[in-house]
Amino acid sequence: MSLPSKNWRLRNQRYRLVGEICEKCGAPIFPPRDVCPECEAPAQTPYVFSGRGEVYSYSTVYHPPAGFEKYVPYTVALVRLEEGPMLTAQLTDVGPEEVHIGMPVEMVTRQMQTDGDEGVIAYGYKFRPRMG
Amino acid sequence: MRDVAIIGIGQTKVGEHWEKDLRHLSLEALQAAMRDAGVEHVDALYVGNMLSGELTGQEHIGALVADFAGLRGVEAVKVEAACGSGAAALRLGYVAVAGGLADIVLVVGVEKMTDATGPEATAALAMAADADHEVAHGLTFVALNALLMRRYMYEYGYQKEDFAPFTINAHANGMNNPYAMFHMKVTPEAYARARMIADPINLLDSSPVADGAAAVVLAPADWVRGSGKPVIRIAASAVATDTVAIHDRRDPLVLEAAALSAWRAYQQADIGPEEVDLFELHDAFSIMAALSLEAAGFARRGEGVRLALDGEITPQGRIPVATMGGLKARGHPVGATGVYQVVEVVQQLRGEAGANQVPDARVGMAQNIGGSGATVITHILIRDS
To answer: Of the listed B17, B83, B171, B379, which one is catalytic?
Structure first.
């Protein structure tokens, strides 16, 4: 389900990997969560991540949930960002057989989901093999 | 606090019940439990369910089930904690009886999943995960577990086929459970050939979408002591939580909530894992079984699969799991599963588990997991003679 208001609300994290940084202990936080997971202090200072990371784990989806049928098969991954936090995203510009744990990847902005021919197109982060 | 006993159990066969909806399934299970308990009235009804609204268009099923069962007027609410909904309902029932707020409490877990198409059910189940940061990226529940399984294989050097004993054991046990969805033996060859769902998880690593309902009746243990029948006491009831999204965990291969919940339960029951005779774990996927065994102290980190390979999880092994088929062979009607697990532990402790009876079972543990480990609820039952 791709809700326009939700896409708008998440625009900073989805389009630019804007997370937060804890002013107290310095932990970078993504996705943003407003309370530091390390020291539990309030953490609402924006922090832009580099978008570089590596594959922690991956899988290829053959049986999609409703709304993702046309993308099958697609590869999803847990990506460890170089700043520390991990996130979940699709891999792109790479075949499933080429992916491996530890593979360096970088963030790109891609279409995540469409809502029919006339609905809103949701954009967000995916990761591709790092160039250079 | 009062000691709480389970005085009645009931369950429907798990499967595709085209002729029955939520209320009929619930009624069948709760009537069986009330007959077994020999009670005609209850003080409260807690209904564990995850997806009634999403998959059948019906919410508000506390009142619905109470009315349909002829219990109009009774206190009744639905309890939701994703796939942990069943045990969460039991937890509330336990709290009510232990705290003296109610005497006879009925707990029902129910799920009706087959009215929806496969992709609809897949999307609905994914609601247990983080909608904005996991599901929005096309992750299914299977895919989330696949990420864990792949990493587990990478870190500890296992092959895909090393996970087969979890499936083989569950299906061997399911063969002897009349309430199980599947009655089919699985061979290592069949496991190796099974269709891939989300690499490396295949069809036989996964629990099936199913309909079903299970119920228990709770009462103060003192009420049933001295009746001549064995008293099945809830010696521990513990809930713990973790991050909903896997990527937010300190170490994705450690189910912290499962460990917290298990160790809180051991403390309440004043026992250690070595005293547990059987463990109904949440084997929604083979990897979850391995991680649960490790979190609950039956295997060291990375050795949950080793325990299965060594044959220690069969009814004759050191820690029998999925003794009536588990989520894979009995089936996984999500919101009902936690109650099925407890019903099966009671069967074992009463000595009513038939061909799957664990010899001299006195202490049984059930652990119900919501999501990929965000809500974990452990109950320990002890037979007092």
So the answer is: B83
